[in-house]
Amino acid sequence: MRLVQITDAHLYADKQARSRAGVPWVHLQRVLEAVSAERPDFVVFSGDVSQDETAASYALAIEAMSQLTCPWAWLAGNHDQPTLMQDERPLIDEVDLSAWRLLLLHTPVEGEPYGELGPEALATLATQLEADDRPTVIVMHHPPVDVGAAWMDAIGLQDREAFWQVVSAFPQVKVILFGHAHQAYAQRHAAGEHAVAVYGCPAISDQFMPGAAHFMVDEASRPGYRIVELMDQQWETWIERVSV
After folding, report:
1. DSSP state, 14?
2. The Calcineurin-like phosphoesterase domain covers which part of the protein (predicted)?
């Protein structure tokens, strides 16, 4: 089972509109061309689909994603409008990946750059995990860990301790994927008596400088995506970069 993660397109309604380091629409096209060549079984788009939060930007995203020949799902980031996304394509919270399952968590807080799950979503997550012990991948927009850039760590998942308390009770949680940080990341995080692999993904749009104390664009880096090969209780993962 080949899962591909893409994230942080920051699209505008205008296909020609520029971000700090390029044209998001062009970046999305290049990334999806490369992803299609990977022949994925499923693609997950982990938030910040839009920058200008317009219905037209989500319609453009749907237009671009239509080139994929596999199923896909998206979730909202802090720059997104979930209602507008829902109007274009349903926001779902679970995907059956045969031997594995994929859980998509909603972390945005309206009007804020940081994320939060909240008690109700955490209780729902626990119920989902209690009901099925298949190996599980969790996807969310906001990082549930520090990524080492002080400004980004301040706007990550605010109730991460409560999140990890839930996860620590369920050793079937093997992998967590996040967006928001606009950079590659890979670490194993202790969760009770087991460890969970936590991965960040390069953005489709601008890349952020790893380890920066303040906001900084990494102009030398390129857009990319993450491939996760899911096997029986095991996985392999790596980053691919795309020239634009």
Report:
1. S
2. 1-183
